[in-house]
Amino acid sequence: MAKLISKTYGEALFETALDVKNVDGLFAEAEAVREILSDNPKLLKLFNHPNIIKEEKLEVMESVFKGRVSAEMTGFLKVVIEKGRQNELDAILSYFIGEVKEYKKIGIAFVTSAAPLSDEQKEQIEQKLLETTKYEAFEMNFRVDESLIGGLVIRIGDRVVDSSVKSRLYELKKELMKIQLG
């Protein structure tokens, strides 16, 4: 349900950004709003508090954001609060940011390796991804997981390419288990 809410509202904000031809502006504002809410957990707590009426939440939202973000973003935040979806605000804004990145052909890649990669290796991986995908740029996220033994695991969206030794050993084990001795 929460995923449906974030998708519905996130797409609505994306359509608004396209309609008013302000994709970059609303993208920057969405990131700023997420950062403000992340840096001020008491503000999010206030928005989600069941004993505070919507009118007071709307007043606080306007005092914090009005004049600092566009009328479109303020209006959007107002709708989210009026509909009682403020507890999903981070997920909604995350979905919107993802939609904008997809629209601008910016991929987000998560690369896990068994050992730290050199800058040259990281650059080679990014270049290979640019050549083999529809994306024109990538946000690269690298991490190390020694349990992979060797190789890489690359995740872009729901697609995963697993060339790790760990997964190959697992597949080999499955195949060996199928063989009947006798």
Give me some keywords for this one.
single chain, 182 residues, alpha+beta, Peroxidase, domain 1, 2 domains, four-stranded mixed β-sheet, 4 strands, 60% helix
Radius of gyration: 22 Å
> What would the CATH topology of the largest domain be?
Peroxidase, domain 1
CATH architecture of the largest domain: Orthogonal Bundle
Q: Estimate what percentage of residues fall within beta strands.
A: 5-15%
Helix content: 55-70%
Report the total helices.
8
The overall pLDDT average reads 94
Q: What's the story with the biggest beta sheet? A: 4 strands, mixed
CATH superfamily annotation of the largest domain? N-terminal domain of the delta subunit of the F1F0-ATP synthase
| Cross-sheet strand order for the largest sheet | 2-1-3-4
Structural class: alpha+beta
DSSP E strands, number: 4
What's the SSE blueprint?
Elements: H1 2-19, H2 23-39, H3 41-48, H4 54-65, H5 71-82, H6 89-103, E1 106-113, H7 119-132, E2 137-144, E3 152-156, E4 159-162, H8 165-178
Parallel strand pairs: 1-2
Antiparallel strand pairs: 1-3, 3-4
Helix pairs in contact: 1-2, 1-5, 1-6, 2-6, 4-5
Structure, explained:
It comes from Qiania dongpingensis. Keywords: ATP synthesis, Cell membrane, CF(1), Hydrogen ion transport, Ion transport, Membrane, Transport. Its main location: membrane. Pfam families: OSCP. One of its GO terms (molecular function) is proton-transporting ATP synthase activity, rotational mechanism. The chain is of the alpha+beta class. The protein has 2 domains: 2-102, Peroxidase, domain 1, CATH 1.10.520.20; 105-178. Helix content is 60%, strand content 14%. The protein contains 8 helices and 4 strands. The protein has a 4-stranded mixed sheet with strand order 2-1-3-4. Strand 3 (152-156) and strand 4 (159-162) form a beta hairpin. The model has no long low-confidence stretch (mean pLDDT 94).
